[in-house]
Every structure is written in C-alpha cells, then in structure tokens.
Amino acid sequence: MTRDQLLKVIEEITIVIEENKVHLTDLDQAIGDGDHGINLNRGFRAVKEKLESLRDKDCGTILKTAAMSLISTVGGASGPLYGTAFMKAGAVVAGKEYISVEDSIKMFDEAIQGIIARGKASRGDKTMLDVLVPAFEAWKVAFEEGESTEKASEKMLGAAYQGLEYTKTIIAKKGRANYLGERSIGHQDPGATSSCIILKTIVDVMAKGE
Amino acid sequence: MVGIVIVSHSNKAAQGIKELSIQMIQSPVQVIDAGGMVDGDIGTDANRIKDAIEKADDGDGVVVLVDLGSAIMSTEMAIEFLDREQRERVVIADGPILEGAIAASLQASIGGTLVQVKGAAEECREVSKL
User: Fold this and answer.
1) CA angle A55–A200–A54, rounded 5-degree value
2) CB-based contact (8 Å) between A74 and chain B?
3) Which of A50, A123, B27, B114 lies at a C-alpha separation of 20 to 30 Å from A196?
4) Would you tell me which residues 154-173 of chain A have a C-beta closer than 8 angstroms to some C-beta of chain B?
5) Does B69 touch chain A (CB under 8 A)?
6) pLDDT at position A210 over 60
7) Residue A187 DSSP one-character state
8) pLDDT tier at A176, thresholds 50, 70, 90
9) Quick check: is B62 in a domain?
10) For residue A8, what pLDDT band results from cuts at 50, 70 and 90?
11) Is residue B114 part of a domain?
12) Closest CA–CA distance from residue A157 to any residue of chain B (Å)
C-alpha cells in the first residue's frame, strides 16, 4: 500500500464513519452511553482536517498524526483505544512511504497489542478485539499459506464479520455495557462494529488499487 | 507539595469537585481540574490531562482522581506522554473521585507524601455514609 493509498484509506474511513454515525450511536444506546458514533465522527473529522498537511509525509507520521487527533477529540473510550492502535501501527512504518505485506501484519499485531494493553480486555469480552483478533489471525495465516492479497482480504473480512456476529451472543465484560450483565446478550457491540467498518474500508481502498 | 488533578468526563463536575476540595484547605495545594473536552463537550482528553498534571506538579508528584471508563485510559495515556523522570511521580488513585479528591487535597495540604496522598484518596472507598 502506497502513502497515497493510506491517505485515501483514512479519508474513506472519515466518510464511512460519518455515514454510520447514527447506526453506531443506536447500537451504543442499547448497551452503552450512546455516543460511539458521535464521538468517532468528531474524531475522524478532526483527522480529516489534518490530511492536507500530510500529503508529503511518511506513513508513520500520517498514522501518528491521526492518532493524536483521535486521542484529543473523540472523548470516549474509543479515543485512547483507536488512538493507541493508530500510534502503534504508525511506529512500525516510521519513515516509510510504502507499506509491505510484512509491515501490515506487524502493524495489525502491534495495534491489537496496544488495544489490549490500553483497555485491559481480552477476546470474548464483547469488544472490538472480538473482531480484530480473528481478523488479524485470518490475515496472517492467509499469507503464510501463500494466498493473494485479494484472497487474504476476503478471509480477513470473513473472520471480522463472524467475530461481529459472535459479539451478539456474549456478555459484555468491559465499559458501560458491563453494568448490564446478561442483558447485553443479543446486542451487537458498537466498538466491534466500528472496527469492522474500518477493516472493510481498508480492503475496499486496496481493491480499487488507486 | 503533592498536586492533585481531577479528571471527569464533565468539565462542570471536575470544576465543582475542585471547588469542594480547596474549600477545606488553607495552604496552596495545586488542585487542577481536567474535565471534558476542549470545546466543553462530555469526554476525556489525554492532552488536556497531561497539561493539568504538568501544572500540578512542583516536583513532589501528582495524584490523579478519575471518574470512569475512558477517564482511566486517557489518564494512563497522559502519563505515558510525560517525560520519563516526571512519569515516575504521577499516580492514579483507585478511589471515589469526589470524596477522594477532598481527602487527598487535605492530606497534600498538611505535607503528605505521594504515597500518603494516594492512600488518603483510596481509603475513601471504605467510608460508609449511613
């Protein structure tokens, strides 16, 4: 993925998050404090404002700048979580203008480790990790098995959506939804949903190959 | 003197807790509020918290009182943003934000150490109201 594609990914994420603002907020109203869509939209709008100044920067700087914007503007838990993920992923490609497949695996892994350390959550807690961890594993395994980027993307998204469905079946252990206990069953996790949306956007931009 | 930082999702709540905390003390303890977002919206902002910690620290360290959820994550992040040397003397108290802030401010005002001030805030967890 080139630097221009990375900028395109971030730009597309801001658009898709805006489109899904109400959907994410509705999901969060059911089991949380009802601000996930509003918060993320505010965060990514702030990121978008920075994009123009990042056109000639390296991938690490682009991701780190996006991270700092998210940290300062999101307001809810997704700010430090996505902020940490972007920052950790950015550190992998500091000074680089191109992201290789090996880089992407390392970035994905680092981002997840950052989210785990920040949120002190694990898989099965009904969080974004229930999407990100299986998606990462599918992505990594696909390349180990010699699959094409296209096929790896397909498998990664498949695992992500399966993880999203899984969040409907489990009890929330983290965040405000934790207070609901068993009543959180049946509801899809908002953070897992936004993670799916972001992964799908990355795949869509790569598929266009612009 | 140990400084106190109050981190709430609400700017008004953080300001109000600060107001109650300094009401009881005579000596100039630095009690700094870091509530809400820059634009006044509900939320927490690691950079705002970092600025507040730097303001509250005179070299003796800072105890941070937090409300819930992202207040903890944003504060942890703010601490990571500090210089290594300063980072060592900043701690989050695992106690109720209002009672903890009052007890911690009082303990700081009588020259309590970082450990004592944090302890004062955390002891409030056990205080029964009725």
Assistant:
1) 10
2) yes
3) A50
4) none
5) yes
6) no
7) P
8) confident
9) yes
10) very high
11) yes
12) 28
CA–CA distance, B51 with B53 (Å, rounded to integer):
5
Is the CB of residue A71 less than 8 Å away from at least one CB of chain B? yes
Q: Which residues from chain B sit within 8 angstroms of residue A71, using beta carbons?
A: 45-47, 74, 77
The one catalytic residue in B3, B5, B9, B71 is B9
Residue B60 annotated as catalytic: no
- Whether the ipTM is more than 0.90: the answer is no
Average the pLDDT over B67-82 and give the result: 94
CATH code of the domain in which B31 resides:
3.40.50.510
Domain that holds residue B74: 3-123
**What is the DSSP-derived secondary structure letter of residue A97?**
S
| Residue B42: closest CA among B20, B75, B68 | B68
CATH 3.30.390.50 fits A3-208, yes or no: no
Share the mean pLDDT of chain B: 95
Q: Which helix (H) or strand (E) holds B76?
A: helix B70-81
DSSP designation for B37: -
**Is B9 within 8 Å of chain A by CB?**
yes
Q: Is B3 helix (H, G, I), strand (E, B) or coil?
A: strand
- What confidence score (pLDDT) does residue A33 get? 84
Question: Residue B112 domain-assigned?
Answer: yes
Give pLDDT tens digits for A72-94: 999 999 999 999 999 999 999 99
Residues of B in contact with A73 (CB under 8 A): 37, 45
Domain residue ranges of chain A, discontinuous segments joined by +: 3-208
Task: Report yes or no on B128 lying in a domain.
Answer: no
pLDDT tens-digit readout, A123-167? 999 999 999 999 999 999 999 999 999 999 999 999 999 999 999
Statement: residue B129 has pLDDT above 90:
no
Measured at the CA of B107, the angle between CA B104 and CA B112, to 5 degrees, comes to 120
